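Deliverable D2.4 — example input (C-alpha cells):
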C-alpha cells in the first residue's frame, strides 16, 4: 500500500521523514490524530529490515497512541517516532539532538518520550533542541522512565480480568507467562512476584533471563513458544503482532493481558481471541500507565496522582468488559467503539 493510501485509509494527519547525514539520523515521525490534544508517543529505535517496515510500524504505533490516550481519558492525541538503525553509543547525543530539532519544527503538535531502545538520557539529548519531550529525569522536572507506571497499569488491568474470569482479583498462585522481560516485562514480573503469582518468563536475551531467574526464581520458557504454554494468564510484553492466525489457536490461557503495543496483528484477531473463550485486555488500555504518568509532566508532575490514575485502569477494564457484554462484541471491539465515540463527540464540539 502506498503511503498516501495508508494515511487516507486511517485519517493520519502528518508523516515526517527525518534525515541528517551529519549525525546519521534516519527517522519517521507519524501524527495520527490531534482531536483531543497534541500527539504524545515515544521514540523507538530498531534495526528495521526496510524503510517500509519502519513506516508500517510507526503508523500502527501512532494510531495505537491515539486510542490509548483517549481510553485513558487524557486530552492528548497519538503520535510516534521511529529511528531506523541502532546508532553507536558515541553518536547518540548528536543523533537525538537532531531528532529533537525535527520535533521542535512541529511546533508542539508532537510530544515525544522513551520507547523500545531509547532511554532517559536520550530524552535529555533531545531536550537540548526541543521542549516537547517528556520522560525526563526527576532533577529536570520529569518523571523518569515510564515503564514502572506502565507495568503498574498492566497489573491493574490483569486484576480486573482475573475478577471476571476467576471470580477474584487476587493473583496469588495464578500462573502467569510473560513474553519479554525488558523494561515493562521485568517491572511487571516484580509486581507479580509481590502478588505471589507463579511466573514463567521468556526473552530473546539469554543473559537477562538468567539474571532475572536467579533473582526471582521463576520458570523459564522459549519466548517464541511461550504463548502456547498452559497458564492462567498470558502476558505479551515484547513487540507487537503476537496474536495472529498462527498463535491464537495455540493459546492455552484464560486471559491475555500484557504491556506490548499492537498485540493483535489485525483488528479481526481480537474477535478470534474472544471466540476461543479467552478474555483479552486491549493492549492500549492495559499499558496506558506510562502515558498517564507522562501526561502529568505537562501540568506539573505528581507521583501520587500518577499512581491513583494508573490504578484506575482496573475500573476502565471493568467498563470495557461490561460494554463488551452489553453489546455482544469482543473486548477489543468494545474498547475501539468507546474510543471512537469519545473522539467523534469531541469533533462535533469543535465544529460548533
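Example output (designed residues):
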Amino acid at each position: 500500500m502506498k503511503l498516501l493510501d495508508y494515511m487516507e485509509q486511517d485519517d493520519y494527519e502528518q508523516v515526517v521523514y527525518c534525515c541528517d547525514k551529519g549525525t546519521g539520523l534516519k527517522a519517521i515521525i507519524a501524527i495520527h490524530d490531534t482531536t483531543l490534544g497534541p500527539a504524545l508517543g515515544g521514540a523507538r529505535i530498531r534495526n528495521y529490515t526496510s524503510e517500509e517496515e519502519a513506516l508500517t510500524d510507526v503508523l500502527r504505533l501512532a494510531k495505537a497512541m491515539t486510542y490509548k490516550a483517549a481510553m485513558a481519558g487524557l486530552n492528548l492525541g497519538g503520535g510516534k517516532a521511529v529511528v531506523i538503525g541502532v546508532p553507536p553509543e558515541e553518536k547518540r547525543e548528536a543523533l537525538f539532538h537532531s531528532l529533537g530539532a525535527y520535533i521542535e519544527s512541529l511546533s508542539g503538535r508532537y510530544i515525544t518520550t522513551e520507547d523500545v531502545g531509547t532511554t532517559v538520557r536520550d530524552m535529555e539529548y533531545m531536550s537540548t533542541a526541543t521542549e516537547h519531550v517528556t520522560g525526563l529525569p526527576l532533577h529536570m522536572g520529569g518523571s523518569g522512565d515510564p515503564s514502572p507506571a506502565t507495568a503498574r497499569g498492566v497489573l491493574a488491568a490483569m486484576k480486573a480480568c482475573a475478577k471476571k474470569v476467576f471470580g477474584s482479583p487476587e493473583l496469588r498462585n495464578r500462573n502467569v507467562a510473560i513474553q519479554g522481560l525488558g523494561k515493562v516485562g521485568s517491572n511487571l514480573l516484580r509486581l507479580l512476584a509481590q502478588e505471589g503469582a507463579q511466573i514463567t518468563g521468556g526473552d530473546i536475551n539469554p543473559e537477562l533471563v538468567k539474571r532475572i531467574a536467579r533473582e526471582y526464581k521463576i520458570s523459564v520458557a522459549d519466548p517464541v513458544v511461550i504463548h502456547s504454554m498452559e497458564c492462567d494468564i498470558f502476558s505479551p510484553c515484547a513487540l507487537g503482532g503476537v496474536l495472529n492466525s498462527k498463535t491464537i489457536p495455540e493459546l492455552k490461557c484464560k486471559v491475555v493481558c500484557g504491556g506490548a503495543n499492537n498485540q493483535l496483528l489485525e483488528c479481526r484477531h481480537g474477535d478470534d481471541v474472544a471466540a476461543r473463550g479467552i478474555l483479552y485486555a486491549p493492549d492500549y488500555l492495559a499499558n496506558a500507565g506510562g502515558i498517564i504518568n507522562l501526561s502529568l509532566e505537562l501540568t506539573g508532575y505528581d507521583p501520587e496522582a500518577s499512581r491513583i490514575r494508573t490504578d484506575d485502569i482496573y475500573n476502565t477494564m471493568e467498563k470495557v468488559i461490561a460494554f463488551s457484554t452489553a453489546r455482544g462484541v469482543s473486548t477489543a471491539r468494545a474498547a475501539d467503539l468507546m474510543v471512537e465515540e469519545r473522539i467523534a463527540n469531541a469533533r462535533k464540539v469543535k465544529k460548533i
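The first strand starts at residue 14 and ends at 20.
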